[in-house]
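Hey, I was hoping to borrow your eyes for a little while. I've dropped the whole record in just underneath, so have a look:

——
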Amino acid sequence: PGMDATSSIPPGLLSVLPPNLQAVASALDPGTLARLIEIHSQAPTKLAPEPPPKPDAETVSNQVTTAAAKVFETYKSSLTFGLPHPGDIAESGLLSSVPLPPLTYPTDGLDAFGGTIVGEGKLSKLQLEGVLYAGQ
């Protein structure tokens, strides 16, 4: 009656319990407390999940390239004449999914600039297309 229930538990056994269980140990009879310690000591330890490995620079580069390929499309001119543009031209995937309206401006209108513009490749297909759509 006047004895603390933990007084009959060997010192050190309580130390395996978490602090919140140590606090209530005095309210338990020694048999229940011993059983609680036994159950707790057999419980599997929860380990934090191991973080995923950090990708190397090549993997990150490939991921960025793949993501960019999903967002951007290579621009393709609708003109059948002229030279390709010397630089890499890209447009958003959403924009490239909508076709340009039909080109109705007469391509012979380019003759007003002189025959060398197309013949000598002074303007690329991309630039010629811009001029034709601007004149439309």
Notes: The first strand starts at residue 72 and ends at 74. The beta strands are 72-74, 90-92. The radius of gyration is 39 Å.
